[in-house]
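Take one record.
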Amino acid sequence: MVIEGGCVTIAMYCLIQFYVQLKDDLAEHNPLLKVAAIKLVIFLSFWQTILISFLTSSGAIKPSQRFQGPDLRIGIPSLLLCIEMAIFSVFHLFAFPWQVYDIRRSAIVASESVPGYLPDPKTAYLGGPLGSKALLDAFNPWDLVKAIGRGFRWFAVGRRNREQDVSYQAYKISRPLNPDASDID
C-alpha cells in the first residue's frame, strides 16, 4: 500500500505539473475539467479503498453474521465504485463532449450547407471502412516513440524551450480545430 500510495501521489504531482505548464496552450479545450474528470475517478477510488482497508483492519468496521471480512474489504469499495461511476459517467459527458468531433456541426460545413451542395472531401470523414484507417493511425507506435523522446528532451532541456521543437512549429502553421468562415478556401 505504501508503494502504491507513493506511485499515485507522484502520478498526481506529474499531472498537476503538466496542467500548470500547458493550461494556457490548452485553454480552449477545458483541461481542468478533463483532468478533474479522470483524476477524481482514480484518486477517489484509491483513497476510499485505503480508508475502508484501514477501518476494517483497525476494527472500526467489524464483520457480522450478515457481512464477513471479504464483504467489507472488497464488497463495499466495489459497491461504492459502481455508484460513483454512474455519477462520473454524467460528469464525463460534460468534460468530453462529442459535438466537437461531429463534422456536420463544424463551422466549415455549416457555411457550405446550401441546397444541392456536395460535401468537400476535406470536410468528410476519412477514417476508412468502420474507421479502420483512423484506428491504425491512432495506434501508430512511431507516434508513441516520438512523443516519449520529445518528453525526455523537454525534461532535460526544459519547458521554456519546448516551443522551438519541430512539433510545435508544425502545430503553429496547421489549421485550428474550430475554423471560422475566413478559413474556408
Observations:
- The mean pLDDT is 76.
- DSSP finds seven helices and no strands in the chain.
- The helical segments are 2-22, 31-58, 69-95, 107-111, 132-138, 141-157, 166-173.
- The longest helix spans residues 31-58.
